[in-house]
Amino acid sequence: MLDKISKVLTSVFGTKSEKDLKKLWPVVDEIKAFEEQIQALTDEELQGKTAEFKQKIKEETAEVEAEIRDLKAKMDSNDESVSLEDRREFADQLKALEEEWLEILEDVLDKIMPEAYAVLKDTCRRFVGRSWEVAGNQMEWNMVPYDVQLIGAVAMHQSSIAEMKTGEGKTLSAIFPAYLNALAGRGVHVITVNTYLAQRDAQWNRPIFDFHGLTVDCVDLYQPNTDQRRKAYRADITYGTNNEFGFDYLRDNMVAEEDQLVQRGYHYAIIDEVDSILIDEARTPLIISGPVPQGGDSQKFVEMKPRVEALVNAQKKLVGSLVLEAEKLIAEEKLEDAGLALYRASRGFPKNAKFRKMMQEPFNQRLVQKTEAFYLAENAKNLPKVDEYLFYSVDMKQKSIEMTEKGRDFITRKDEEPDFFVIPDLGLETSKIEEAFEARKREKRAEIEANAEFSEEYKEKKLGVMEEELRLEREQQMNDLHRLFAERSEHIHTVNQILKAYTLFEREEEYIVQDGKVQIVDEHTGRVLAGRRYSDGLHQAIEAKESVKVEAATQTYATITLQNYFRMYHKLSGMTGTAATEEGEFNEIYELDVTVIPTNRPVVRDDREDLIFRTKREKYNAVIQAIQEYHQAGQPVLVGTTSVDVSETMSRMLKRAGIKHNVLNAKQHARESEIVAEAGRAGAVTVATNMAGRGTDIKLSDEVKERGGLVI
After folding, report:
1. Least buried of 177, 526, 652, 660, by fewest C-beta within 10 Å?
2. Helices 644-656, 616-632: crossing angle, 10 deg rounding
3. Which residues are registered as beta bridge partners of 686?
4. What pLDDT shows up at residue 9?
């Protein structure tokens, strides 16, 4: 009954999408009304339009801008007459002014949008035929937006999600709201699902924005916490992946000084594949943390303590003898040898009581300084000669220790455990396991297929059992490898942290033991920092040293979900091929509407029924046969697979069939741009995992379109 009523209401009043489009088409008509006069402009006059738009924004917001400046000046002043209550009131006023400024801005942008979009559309027209390098390939610009792409662009500026079908040009639509909102000078963030797309889109669109004097950058090109990444955020339009934006926010919340901040604010974000980022991954937390303790972590510290304690005692004894030797050498006026002995003592156990007493003498201080200067010269190339005599070296300034070969021998009980400090190379060992797996599989397959006594059905069953057994064996080997890697890494980390606890941290100085707990002492105030713990297992190491209960280590430094991160933006919009099904969630969580954009032309894709086979072999053989037919006809073929393993199986079958092809999976991610560029060429065959799923733009030539287009 309700369904019938809904249908009647829809037939009378229209669907939501139809209502949305009725509001948007007049804006497109306004854009087109500017086209004639815009096309008559010279390039210089067209470029000058951007300055006009910026000036318009500046004029309209000038009054509020001045009030904001004055208020900030009051808040930043050191005037003692300004009370805390005054500052709170200033903060409230500033927030209100900021909201007023944003309201004025949005009003101005709405007014200039038709002309601004017309300017950018004509820029696209003028760039047709030009080419530049994109993701390592020379690409020619041949895009002028259709009316439906302009509808998507208008919807995105109005904080809506544009649902645009695959191949309808979402990337081109996004440059319009990016350009318009960048005029405010507060930055626009264009979020993509992977690094390849972020870098590609930044390179592809940069010349268009450059033409209008707007800067473009991509955060994924640079390392975190670098000046280059900070500069990328200062660009007018910044591309990047959702995770990098989120992690940069967390890192900014961990810095000590304002000038260390990387990001500059959260004004406007355009999110590509918005359903994936804001819905599928919304509750996935981004976490910055130290090493996560495993189940037996606490016991490891207790188990390793005796070895490290013995090592420390041996070092103390060695340093004691060095100090006595230095004293004797000074008396004999053998100053060079005495300086070396004292310098070794300073790097071995600088807290030795007799050494400290000797270092109170200016003569001995100068002697050690002279020796240190000699051994640190030429990038400290002679420093190993100092340290090789010790079990480990200590750098009190850097709060670091480094174990020597002599110390490692001591810990491993003189080669009783020679591999204690050897961490397996995961990449190399994994490769060996994979190669052995493939070799065994080929060998077993050949044996089964060569057995004339087996029926085809039995062979198929036998092959399945064999592959499953080998796969389980490989899985066990991989588990053993990762377990060994984790154990060795944990051993080394545990030893280093206990050694730090004994050499760099003194009871009653850096910490106290109270109520059976190690408590940190603030070096500035001398007060106990209740509840604070050293990170990276160091607190556990000190607890083991002091023979108190070893508590669990702190794991997380900072965390945020993508949902909470993106809700900080003043304005959000997005684009995807599939958003209508999640419209309710978008509206409820982010207050975002979904606008379904019609296609420019009727969909000509030939959607066929699924085929079901009894066995994988039959399915794979049918796929290979189909690929051969399309390949011979000159049509490009994209073969989607569910995993790297399946993609490589398909690749081997294609090789046996003599079909040239490319494989795009996690192992070949470095060649992604090259493979995608070739995927649309006549006769090309590309086997891919879901890497080719979202955002991948496979270009087809007219020749390929005439032959039937891309086969998936």
Report:
1. 526
2. 60
3. 638, 662
4. 43
Task: Quote the CA–CA distance of 309 and 299 in Å, as a whole number.
Answer: 16
Give the separation between CA 71 and CA 681, rounded to whole angstroms: 60
CB 513 within 8 A of CB 447: no
Give 233's contacts (C-beta < 8 A, 6+ positions apart): 187, 217, 219, 248, 262, 263, 264
Residue carrying the six token digits 């369904």: 3
514 pLDDT band, cuts 50/70/90, is confident
* CATH number attached to the domain at 616-706: 3.40.50.300
Residue 309's H or E segment, with its range, is helix 297-331
- Entry pTM: 0.58
Give residue-wise pLDDT tens across range 243-263: 889 989 999 998 888 889 999
At residue 284, what is the residue type?
T
- Topology at the third CATH level for domain 15-289+563-596: Rossmann fold (3.40.50)
Contact 507, 519 (CB under 8 A): no
DSSP state at residue 278: I
47-63 pLDDT per residue, tens: 999 999 999 999 999 99
User: DSSP strand E in 521-599: where?
Assistant: 556-561, 571-576, 593-596
SS3 464: helix
| DSSP secondary structure letters along 146-195 | -HHHHHHHHHHHTTEEEE--TTS-HHHHHHHHHHHHHTTSS-EEEEESSH
> ∠ CA 323-328-332 to the nearest 5 degrees?
145
